[in-house]
Design brief:
37% of the residues are buried. This protein has 240 residues and is of the alpha/beta class. Helix content is 50%, strand content 12%. Helix 8 packs across helix 11. It has a five-stranded parallel beta sheet, with helices on both faces. It is globular.
Length: 240
C-alpha cells in the first residue's frame, strides 16, 4: 500500500462487546487500517455494510437474531457491495461452519485464537484478492471435497476445465492446494505479476467472485488431492 492510499475500511462484527472492542483497537492501531463501524449481530452487520460499504467485514459466526453465515450470504448477494469481502472469525473450526461460510461467499476463515499479526495480515491479504484459512481447516476442506465427489471430473465440471489453458489449469490446482501467489510463482518459476494475471483470467472465465470460489472449483474438478494434517507449529499459518 502506498503512503497516499486511504486506509482499508473495516466493520467488526461480534456479539461480545469486549472482544469486539479489542479487535477494533488492534485494527485501528495500524496506519493502513481503520474500523468504520461495529455490529453485535447479523442484522446489524448487514445494516452496517449497506450504510458504510467497507472493504472488509470481520464476521463472527454464532450470534443472536441472525448468525454470521446468513449475514455473510446476504452481504455477498448485494451488487452494491461487490468490493466488500467477508472474513469469518470463529472460536470453532467445525466443518459445517467452514463449508457454509465458503458457500455463503466468505473470503476467508480464521480462528479466534489466531495471533494479532496474523489477523492483520489476513485483512490486508483478503483485500488484495487472497483468501486465508488456518491450515487445519484447509486440510479438512480438501479431505471433505475429495471424499464427497466421484473420482475424476465429469459433465459440467469437465467443461469448466476445457475453457482453460493448460497453465491456467495448473495454477487453479495450486490455488486449490492452498498456495499463495508468491508460492505459485516460485513453484512454476514465473513472475508474481504473471500469476496474478492467470488468477484474473481464472476469475473471469469461471465467473468466480473471488479466490475462494476458485478453490471450491479446484475441488469440484478433481484437481486437489488430500494433504497431510498440519503440525501444531503450522496451525497459525496458511494462505489460500
Amino acid at each position: 500500500m502506498t503512503a497516499s492510499a486511504p486506509p482499508l475500511r473495516v466493520v467488526v462484527v461480534d456479539d461480545e462487546l469486549l472482544l469486539r472492542r479489542s479487535l477494533a483497537m488492534i485494527i485501528d492501531s495500524e496506519p493502513d487500517l481503520t474500523v468504520v463501524g461495529e455490529a453485535g449481530d447479523g442484522m446489524e452487520a448487514i445494516a452496517a455494510a449497506e450504510t458504510l460499504a467497507p472493504d472488509i467485514v470481520l464476521m463472527d459466526v454464532r450470534m443472536p437474531r441472525l448468525d454470521g453465515i446468513d449475514a455473510t450470504r446476504d452481504i455477498c448477494r448485494l451488487p452494491e457491495l461487490g468490493h466488500t469481502r467477508v472474513l469469518v472469525l470463529s472460536m470453532f473450526d467445525l466443518d459445517e461452519y467452514v463449508f457454509h461460510a465458503l458457500r455463503a461467499g466468505a473470503a476467508g476463515f480464521l480462528l479466534k485464537d489466531s495471533r494479532p499479526e496474523d489477523l492483520l495480515d489476513a485483512i490486508r491479504r483478503t483485500c488484495d484478492g487472497e483468501s486465508l484459512f488456518a491450515p487445519s481447516i484447509l486440510a479438512r476442506l480438501v479431505e471433505h471435497y475429495v471424499g464427497a465427489r466421484p473420482t475424476g471430473p465429469a459433465g459440467p465440471v469437465r467443461s469448466r476445465l476445457e475453457q482453460l489453458t493448460s497453465r491456467e489449469v495448473e495454477v487453479l490446482g495450486l490455488i486449490g492446494q492452498g498456495l499463495s501467489n508468491d508460492e505459485i510463482a516460485r513453484h512454476l518459476t514465473i513472475a508474481v505479476k504473471t500469476v496474478k494475471s492467470h488468477v484474473s483470467h481464472l476469475l473471469s472465465k469461471l465467473g468466480a467472485r473471488d479466490r475462494v470460489q476458485l478453490v471450491i472449483t479446484a475441488y469440484d474438478c478433481g484437481l486437489v488431492k488430500p494433504v497431510a494434517a498440519p503440525t501444531p507449529d503450522q496451525r497459525h499459518r496458511g494462505v489460500v
